[in-house]
Amino acid sequence: MFQTRRTLYLLAVPGLLLLAWKGIRFQASAAPPGVSDPTFHDFNGVCNLPAPEVVRQLGLGWTRADFQWGTVEPEKGKWVWDKTDQLVATAHADSMEILPVLDYTAPWAEAVKGQQTGPPEHVQDWEDYVDHVVARYSHPPFSLRYFQIWNEPTREAGFWRGATNRDFIDTIYLPAAKIVRRYNARVVFSGWPHSNSLAELDGLLSDHDAWRSTDILDVHYFGGSAWQHLYDYWLAAGKCSGIWQTEIGFTDNADYLPNTYLRALEWALGSGWRDPDQYKVFWYANWGAGKDALKCLSTTVQGKIVLTTNGQRLAAMNDALGGGALASFTQFQTTPSLPSTLDESKATALGFKVGDSRTVVALLLNKVGYQSYSSISVHASLGFRPKRVEVVTASGQRRALDAVYTSRGVQVTVPLKNMQDECTNCAWIVAYVEFEAS
Question: What is the DSSP secondary structure assignment for residue 156, as one 8-state letter?
Answer without folding.
Answer: T
